Amino acid sequence: QVQLVESGGGLVQAGGSLRLSCAASGRTFGTYAMAWFRQAPGKGREFVAAISWSGGSTYYADSVKDRFTISRDAAKNTVYLQMNSLKPEDTAVYLCAASSYGLGRTSSYYNYWGQGTQVTVSS
């Protein structure tokens, strides 16, 4: 079992930055691929970024490439999402997810989910 708790969301002006954290519990955290998804009001869940269990491979959605960076700290059982040059369209609840199946871009790969943290970007 893996439990995920996100933090770091908030209100920021367009062009600003935020760093989200996802703290994981469970002895096998190091073997899971991890990802961030987001969900805006009235919209479906959208893939943002993913990182392999080793940290050696990363995927990004085209909409966030070159602005967001995903990373993981195995010693702290934590995954981060550094978000720079934020835009109003980045406003959403950001959810952390863990996969025992491997690295993927769709929510069906991920079998553990956090509750989410709200990110609001004002124009």
Walk me through this protein's architecture.
The chain is mainly beta and 123 residues long. It is built from no helices and eleven strands. The strands form two sheets. Strands 2, 4, 5, 6, 9, 10 and 11 form a seven-stranded mixed sheet that branches. The protein has a four-stranded antiparallel sheet with strand order 1-3-8-7, with no helix packed on it. β7 and β8 form a beta hairpin.
Question: SSE string, helix = H, strand = E?
Answer: EEEEEEEEEEE
Helix amount: under 10%
Query: How many distinct helices?
Result: 0
The whole-number mean of residue pLDDT values reads: 94
Low-pLDDT residue spans: none
Shape: globular
Secondary-structure class: mainly beta
Helices and strands in order:
Layout: E1 3-7, E2 10-13, E3 18-25, E4 33-39, E5 45-51, E6 58-60, E7 68-73, E8 78-83, E9 92-99, E10 112-113, E11 117-122
Structure summarized in a few sentences:
Helices cover 0% and strands 50% of the residues. With 123 residues, it is mostly beta strands.
